[in-house]
Amino acid sequence: MALREIITLPDPRLRKVSEPVARIDAEIQQLLDDMLETMYEAPGIGLAAIQVAVPKRIVVVDIGKTEEERNPLFLINPEIVWASEEFSSYNEGCLSVPDYFDDVKRPAMVKVRHLDRKGETVEFDAAGLLATVVQHELEHLDGGLFIDNLSRLKRERVVKKFTKAARFDEIAAQRRAEGAAREAEKAEA
């Protein structure tokens, strides 16, 4: 297993629609293992493949609070086949929108159909936190982020903040590289 880099807003790859998995081979199995390790390390309770720059319809979820409670779900080509008319609201965050949390209203219960690691079709019912996490992660597969469910004003404020931070990081990296180049020139002289 290997840790993968989690891409963050404003990276445009987060807005890509993920492609269905045609075959569950060793590469997909490795991706599932890497995603799970990456999610636990972050730490998070859900991760979509697109968040590690792989545009495949794959999600890993584990809402266990401790190592003893861990029960990972591997969802390949998942789809919501039923959603309740009743809604619930959770304070959501996202590994791709670090350190930002806000209340999001979603269906309180869903039925999910997906392929498991063996390629078998599985269905399960989810309620509460699990329903919220599954819906949040499946949203990623269609190029969505949880901030898309916020008011336009809040969403624009968040995007602006992350875009500004990304520009600052680029400038800082460029300045560090220029400084290192100057030091190397001095050392050669």
Automatic annotation (TrEMBL):
Catalytic reactions on record: N-terminal N-formyl-L-methionyl-[peptide] + H2O = N-terminal L-methionyl-[peptide] + formate
Known function: Removes the formyl group from the N-terminal Met of newly synthesized proteins. Requires at least a dipeptide for an efficient rate of reaction. N-terminal L-methionine is a prerequisite for activity but the enzyme has broad specificity at other positions.
Cofactor(s) in the UniProt record: Fe(2+)
Gene, per the UniProt record: def
Group of enzyme by EC: hydrolase
Residues that hold Fe cation according to the record: 94, 136, 140
Residue positions of the active site: 137
One GO MF term: metal ion binding
EC number: 3.5.1.88
GO biological process: translation
Family the UniProt entry places it in: Belongs to the polypeptide deformylase family.
Official protein name in the record: Peptide deformylase
Cross-referenced NCBIfam families: pept_deformyl (TIGR00079), PRK00150.1-3 (NF001159)
Tree of life domain: Bacteria
UniProt keyword list: Hydrolase, Iron, Metal-binding, Protein biosynthesis
A Pfam family annotated for this UniProt entry: Pep_deformylase
Cofactor binding note of this UniProt entry: Binds 1 Fe(2+) ion.
